[in-house]
Write a sequence for this structure.
């Protein structure tokens, strides 16, 4: 899938990590109990962005709100990647730690 990626968002240690390899072993982290996962596609990307704009996705230093995975599938990799940068900016407006967050690329 050309425009597919998984993105890990961490709040206590603010960073976003882009994973473009469907077979990356780091996806095992997603399996923790109560893990938040948002699935974003072309059909729902507007509504998902609205959720970030409105602050519906809270982050805090507790187990249920300290991280999130995004499963993004848009038309191209660049389109999906661009969405990550927009989400980062929206998070930075609502949560101060994200203002210093890096966006990293995980190569596995």
């Amino acid at each position: 899938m050309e425009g597919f990626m998984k993105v890990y968002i961490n709040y206590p240690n603010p960073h976003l990590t882009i994973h473009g390899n469907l077979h990356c072993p780091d996806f095992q982290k997603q399996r923790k109990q109560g893990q938040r996962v948002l699935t974003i596609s072309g059909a729902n990307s507007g509504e998902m962005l609205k959720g970030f704009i409105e602050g519906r996705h809270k982050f805090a230093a507790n187990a249920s709100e300290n991280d999130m995975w995004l499963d993004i599938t848009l038309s191209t990799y660049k389109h999906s990647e661009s969405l990550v940068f927009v989400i980062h900016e929206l998070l930075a407006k609502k949560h101060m730690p994200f203002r210093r967050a890096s966006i990293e690329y995980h190569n596995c």
